[in-house]
Amino acid sequence: MPTLVIVGAQWGDEAKGKLVDVLGHEAQMVVRYAGGNNAGHTVITGGQTFKFQLIPAGILHPGTVAVLGSGMVVCPQGLLEELDRTREQRSELGELIISSAAHVVFPYHRMLDALEEDARGENRIGTTSRGIGPAYQDKVARFGIRMGEFVDPTRFKQRLQEVLAYKNRLLEMFGSAPIAFDGLYEEYSKYADRLRPFVRDTEVLVQNAVARNERVLFEGAQGTFLDLDSGTYPYVTSSHPVAGGACLGTGIGPRAIQNVLGVCKAYTTRVGSGPFVTELDDAIGQQIRDQGQEYGTVTGRGRRCGWLDLVALRHSCRLNSISGLAVTRVDILSGIGPLQVATGYRLDGEIIPTLPTNPADLARVEAELVELEGWNDDLRGARKLEDLPTPVRKYLDFIEAQTQTPIAIVSIGPDREETIITRPDLIWA
Ligand code: IMP
After folding, report:
1. pLDDT on residue 93
2. What CATH number is given to the structural domain containing 205?
3. Does the reported pTM lie above 0.85?
4. Closest atom of ligand 1 to CA, residue 273
5. Which residues are CB-neighbours of 327 under 8 A, at least 6 positions away?
6. What are phi and psi of 67, to 5 degrees?
């Protein structure tokens, strides 16, 4: 069964977009399973840079079906802008399909996102302000408006009336101006008209592709430790980025997944607040940020940078049943050495086996660091493992040994060509 989940193995921004692009041309279908336009996937190919937030990066391959799965929350305006921009950049694209069960993000979700962050005060999460949390809250509260309802004019009017009356009461309670129904309905009806041709029931579509033995790629967004249940709660997003989310957010069962490619950077980054055990709040952290241009695609915020955390990565391999790792941005570490990696955590003087669930404990944890030799070479010309200098290969071997997981891909630059596939058997079975 040639099915593959591409999952972020850390806190997001691991360069999943590039890998979806590299592997997507071999897939008949690419399905995104979680999140919304809080994600930012950059793909650099043929001298062009594409920035995706909602559309699966697989759309760049004509002949590929790109599905926005039921686990997603979709901002219609953002999606249309992204679609127009991508069409301007490239005339031949894959087919876009949007799940009728995906939820719609409205302006009141963004307003409530800001109000909730204010209410958290010092404990603010540092969300992307895209209304993601409030949109998922509506879904869980069984109050959300799904894509299928959105593109049905009669149903949409009725649902928006019902929901907006409630949301306006909430907004007024917080001292915000209510949203006028007519203007909102008119604006969003126009978006619905344009999106209607793309909206379908997608569960059977995906199931049938799997049953026909087609290559189906499940594209993750965000990362494992931003998962609502398995991440560093409450500093998480509101969906399920873990590999299991591919089942929840597309309509397949666990046995339909063959391989899980866990994408991790050769170091660690995190955007927004929350514990970060190996964070480097110093000149080395700044050097990584500068060399890696570690600034958010969605918000432009500087990302927090730190050493590779192998305790977290080991846990991630288990949480996602990762079959192979894709280690990205190895080139960025050139000239930084000597390098350090965390192999253990210490809490109150005791070695602990993995990440504590309590965020207060995680914030107190100290990393056990191991020093590894660095390198100064430019790696971007390497095309096979043997082209890489010995310290790089030792660094990669160390990751494999510590995580007990084979490395399937090494990425040494943003371009498609700057990718070394070491274990093709762990990608499409
Ligand atoms: P939200 O998803 O906007 O609610 O933000 C919740 C947390 O997830 C914040 O710390 C964000 O910075 C983080 N986050 C959301 N999407 C991404 C992403 O695509 N990459 C990295 N961090 C993200």
Report:
1. 94
2. 3.90.170.10
3. yes
4. 10
5. 264, 265, 266, 396, 399, 407, 409, 410, 411
6. -110, 135
Q: Residue 298: pLDDT band by 50, 70, 90 thresholds? A: confident
What are the pLDDT digits (tens) for 115-135? 999 999 999 999 999 999 999
- Per DSSP, 266 falls in state S
pLDDT band at 285 (very low <50, low <70, confident <90, very high): very high
Give per-residue pLDDT as tens, 188-219: 999 999 999 999 999 999 999 999 999 999 99
Percent of the chain with pLDDT over 70: 100
Q: Are 62 and 170 found together in one domain?
A: no
Query: Cα torsion at 32, 220, 216, 59 (round to 10°)?
Result: 50
Whether the CB of 15 sits within 6 Å of ligand 1: no
The catalytic residue among 13, 21, 227, 309 is 13
Q: Among the three residues 149, 170, 198, which one is the final residue of a domain in this structure? A: 198
pLDDT at 297 over 80: no
pLDDT of residue 299: 77
The mean pLDDT of 231-255, rounded to a whole number, is 97
- Both 344 and 241 in one domain: the answer is yes
13 is an active site residue: yes
52 and 88 assigned to the same domain = yes
What CATH number corresponds to the domain at position 155? 1.10.300.10
Q: Give me the number of domains the chain comprises.
A: 2
d(C-alpha 368, C-alpha 229), whole Å: 26
Residue 408 and residue 320 share a domain: yes
Nearest CA to ligand 1 atom 9: 127
Hey, how many other C-beta atoms are within 10 angstroms of the C-beta on 417? 11
Distance separating the N- and C-terminal Cα atoms of the chain: 7
Q: Does the C-beta of 132 come closer than 6 Å to ligand 1?
A: yes
Say what percent of the chain tops pLDDT 90.
91
Q: Are residues 209 and 192 in the same domain?
A: no
Alpha helices, H only, 141-230: 147-150, 153-173, 181-195, 203-211
* Full domain range(s) for residue 21: 3-95+201-426
